[in-house]
UniProtKB/TrEMBL annotation, chain A:
Organism per entry: Streptomyces alanosinicus
Keywords annotated in UniProt: Cell membrane, Membrane, Oxidoreductase, Signal, Transmembrane, Transmembrane helix
Presence of the UniProt keyword Protease in the record: no
Signal peptide, first to last residue: 1-22
Localization terms from the record: Cell membrane; Membrane
Molecular function GO labels: oxidoreductase activity
A Pfam family assignment: Proton_antipo_M
PANTHER family cross-referenced by the UniProt entry: HYDROGENASE-4 COMPONENT F
Protein name: Hydrogenase HycQ
Highest classification ranks of the organism: Bacteria, Bacillati, Actinomycetota, Actinomycetes, Kitasatosporales
Membrane topology qualifier: Multi-pass membrane protein
Gene: hycQ
GO cellular component, one term: plasma membrane
NADH:quinone oxidoreductase/Mrp antiporter transmembrane domain mapped to chain residues: 165-455
TM regions (residue ranges): 67-89, 109-130, 150-183, 195-221, 251-273, 280-303, 315-335, 355-376, 413-433, 445-471
UniProtKB/TrEMBL annotation, chain B:
A Gene Ontology term for the protein's cellular component: plasma membrane
This protein's name: Hydrogenase
Organism: Streptomyces alanosinicus
Keyword field contains Cell membrane: yes
TM segment ranges: 6-27, 34-54, 60-79, 100-121, 133-151, 158-178, 184-204
Membrane association type: Multi-pass membrane protein
Keyword Kinase: no
Locations listed in the record: Cell membrane
Amino acid sequence: MNTALLLTTPVAAPLAVAAAYALTGARAPHPARTCSHGHPVVVAETPVTVPAVEPEPERRPQWCPSAWWGLVSPVAILLCGSLLAAGVLDEGPASAFSGLLRADALTAWMLLVVGAVALIACGSAPAYLADEEAAGRASGRARRHYHVLVQAFLAAMCLAVMTGNLGVLWVAIEATTIVTAFLVGHRRTRTSVEAAWKYVVICSAGIALAFLGTVLIYYAARHAGIAEAWALDWPTLAARADRLDPAVTRLGITLVVLGFGAKAGLIPLHAWLPDAHSQAPAAVSALMSGVLLSVALTAILRYRVIADAALGPDFTRTLLAGIALLTLALAAGLLLAQRDYKRMLAYSSMEHMSLIALGAAIGSPLALSAALLHIAGHGLAKSVAFCASGRILQLTGTTRIGRVRGLLAHVPSVGGVFGIAVVALAAFPPFSLFASELGIARAGLAAGTGLAWATSGSLLLALIAFAALATRTTHMLLGPGPVQPESPTEPGMWPLTLGLAACAALGIATGPLTDLLHAAAQAIGGH
Amino acid sequence: MSAGLYTELLDLACGTFLLTAVLVLWLRELAAIVRVFALQGVALAAIAVLLGAHEQRWDLAGVGLGVGVLRAGVLPYLMRRALAGAAADRGSEEVRETQPLVNVAASLLTAALLTLLAYAVARPLTQLNPTPATRALPVGLAVVLIGFFVLVTRRRALAQVVGFLLLDNGITATAFLATSGVPLIVELGVSFDVLLAVLVLQILTTRMREAFGTTDIDDLRELHD
């Protein structure tokens, strides 16, 4: 099939759906103003069992078919991802528009992850939004804004993984910040406005540093004799990186790692992450945590190839391992003291991102394959966990762990899915996070004294995080439940079950994806 | 243009560029800060146009003019509008930076230290290709650092936006001085992103005023662990 078409579709399809949503606005039901009383109901001091605070609305707004248009783009992304994967494995990287769009194995892998996570998030969104509307927390207009922004967000993420130009990569990642700002502040409450402000200021400033880094790399590339049109082209830079000036490159790479690290939730510019993830609507948290963080990390993976060729592997290794360990320590510490389950999931994302960064620091083929597998496994499990947590918030009206009890007895489907997702996040077999953490650990222990110590340290910290996650979740799931069982049909659960099944399947065997995974690891330097 | 005149004009533009950043630290009235910021936009455009004229690259001069329109015209206009909205809504207390985290004397001292730091950090950059333009490169980095400093020490939402934009101006100046600007498509994307970011921040400021009744960042303390 036409390469240019395949490369354009993942970006164009979400944009087209966004336009469709924006255009249907004219005939939407009358826009009741979004009310700003989104604060959860003030709950009594004692831990309340779930049903006491739950006024289940009788009348649900009828589901309009337009709610399901959102599924078009994840399906298109998945389809293009698989076709590109097949093409890339057969014929090598494809590119169009003089390198602006380019697909190698890593691109195909990331497209598949983005598509899968988007399928979970967009599939569970209609039920979530219908409930928000029934509870009077959102209007038809807010729902339309939501759909337009989510689709634009998907387009920006696809552009970020599909471009071969480092400047365009920066533009796309900054565009995700801008689009998601309104999604984080979607509810317009005090807390969500605060989260949105911190998110935009910290991420924009952080990622501005990455742009400064990009400019410095460009400067070094120009003086290495690379022509203006190709001096930001990733394959060209990666191939000729040994000619870059080391001092300038070192400065540039440091800035890039710090800058994109801000977007990936790594220290030192991570402060936005727990706030934004806890305030955004559930499906948006799922997308941000499941793929946006790893899309930013992929940018670091790409720059790592350039840095390794220009400076030798030790520089990025020390930098990434240090950042990963510090982030992991912080996340584990804050998980221990956590009282809010959405923030708990957010800190768990930081934990997993630092494990991926550690995999990148190790840099052997095994470590890189494991890191990429971890991106996929974490994306699937975390998006399921976030979507389920959104449903729990709707059912209980609180995000405090101490006030949620007996979920399994009360709503077995939601509680069960949440529980299994946390089990997956804690890297139990058969889920793929087990395989990938094992892979990172094995690669780390085989990689020399310094990295072996770093790996053991991070395994210890991951264990602490796991213990904290497990105790908190048990508290939420177990306990006395109500006598009468809830209506057994929870809407919008199929994408979550599907996601968990995919995560488990990946853990058992990567099947036809094995070649793609190895090719992707090879594309970013795992020779 | 003779080489001497070019160097002098370039140094003058860069000097103005740095001086306006320092002035932002010195001033308390937000309206005055916005005016100074607009002046900095003019200086930035002048740097680009001078480089374009020197290298006989008229596309670069065109980009410089575009950057000038954005940074000296559109962005200050947006900020003035936000400021007018705040003043109409809440009165005079909203338009002054009341309690910066660090006082003016200490801020100016910090700016001096940051400039020194920028010169130290930029040594390898200048050594790679010593020309009049790259010798002025530390100025861009100094403005980046000062922008960061404004961002973390100022307590008004709008002052933080100015900090972010100083940071961004600094990066653009660095790009012009080091490599006569990044490729056009990237420059366009970056300008568009910055414009949108400022629009988003402006809307969020309005929402913040609706929700909190003020734009004091210190009031944003509901979310914590």
